[in-house]
């Protein structure tokens, strides 16, 4: 049940900042679960997952030229 919710929330951002925030939150949640299950710890897992999720979220921002200039840049 949580996977559809995660996928729905992951597609909400349009800007790199919005995508980084949602990716970071999803990554932190997933990292906390994995860290708890593997014995690493909830906090270190959440930190690593959050950083990774934020980086991936910012890197996967869709390029809609409506929001960009003629060269698809800000």
Radius of gyration, CA atoms, in whole angstroms:
14 Å
β-strand percent reads under 5%
Largest sheet: none
Q: Roughly what percent helix? A: 55-70%
Domains counted in the coordinates: how many?
Answer: 1
Mean pLDDT: 80
Describe the SSE topology:
Blueprint: H1 2-10, H2 16-38, H3 42-59
Helix pairs in contact: 2-3
Quick structural summary:
With 74 residues, the protein is mostly helical. The chain has 3 helices and no strands.
Kindly describe this structure.
The chain is an all-alpha fold. It has helices at 2-10, 16-38, 42-59. Helix 2 (16-38) runs antiparallel to helix 3 (42-59).
Key attributes of the depicted protein:
single chain; 0% strand; mainly alpha; 74 residues; 3 helices
């Amino acid at each position: 049940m949580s996977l559809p919710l995660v996928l729905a929330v992951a597609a909400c951002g349009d800007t790199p900042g919005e995508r980084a925030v949602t990716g970071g939150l999803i990554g932190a949640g997933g990292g906390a679960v994995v860290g708890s299950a593997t014995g690493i710890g909830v906090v270190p897992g959440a930190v690593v997952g959050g950083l990774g999720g934020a980086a991936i979220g910012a890197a996967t921002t869709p390029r809609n030229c409506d929001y960009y200039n003629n060269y698809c840049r800000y």
